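Onboarding guide, step 5: your first structure request.
Type a short instruction followed by the sequence, for example:

Predict the 3D structure of this protein.
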Amino acid sequence: SLKYFKDPRLREKHLLNLKKQADREWRAIGEILSPTTNTKEMEKQMLKWRVKSQFFDKLLRNLRKASPPGTPRGVSLIVSSDRSLTVRFSEPEVTNGAIATRYKIEWSKEEHFTPEVGEFIMCDLRHKEYTIPDLDKGQKYF
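The system replies with structure tokens like these:
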């Protein structure tokens, strides 16, 4: 479900549940192994669940270490016309090992961005610049 991708806490909880399930499965198989059972198939199943458990454990460790990159550097605002502004910026100095895949540019008539007037999601990161069109002449924007 998409909810796990939007909320990091739900993502971590979901991965924890998957890891617990994998741990229960491989331990349960290990408890019923005996010389009289078909051990080859049981050992395959046990290995499968153990590998899954290790995989979920690695995902959890990486999730807990992950953090977004820092804020963009060198942000400048240029008056492009009487109804537009151009925003320019550079990559963040601190990336925290993350790779920026997009930037969100937001603007508002209120300092606290409530309500937000507009936003633009920049996915083409070759040119870190965006011109905000159709602004009200003489209006203060944030």
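Each response can be followed by summary notes, for example: The helical segments are 3-6, 8-32, 39-65.
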